[in-house]
Write a structure and sequence with these properties.
- With 107 residues, this protein is mainly α.
- It contains five helices and no strands.
- The radius of gyration is 15 Å and the shape is globular.
- The model has no long low-confidence stretch (mean pLDDT 88).
Length: 107
């Protein structure tokens, strides 16, 4: 149950921010060209998808990757300075990472 919860949370988190990153700057240029020009904003969120893929195969390694992504997000977005930003960006990564690690500890 814990591993399923971690996977669902990771999919929702990665999906939400990926869609937001793709669409956030695309309104300035119409059509597919706007989406393609906005792809660099998606790159950081692709790392979350990579961590999820790794966690699917190896929950322990995936949990460690999610915790590393949490630290990276705190430094990149300076989320440690703002509680709301921290709660939205970094805390979910911490929770997901811990859930994957709890699953591996119980086995």
């Amino acid at each position: 149950m814990i591993i399923t919860t971690a996977k669902i949370l990771a999919i929702l988190y990665a999906g939400l921010f990926t869609v937001f990153a793709v669409l956030s700057g695309a309104e300035n240029i119409d059509g597919v060209k706007g989406l393609l020009l906005n792809l660099p904003n998606v790159a950081p969120w692709l790392l979350v998808w990579v961590a999820l893929f790794v966690a699917w195969k190896s929950p322990r390694l995936g949990g460690i990757l999610f915790l590393l992504l949490a630290v990276a997000s705190m430094l990149f977005f300076n989320s440690y300075k703002e509680i709301i930003l921290f709660s939205v960006i970094s805390l979910p990564l911490i929770v997901i990472g811990i859930l994957f690690l709890i699953k591996t500890k119980n086995n």
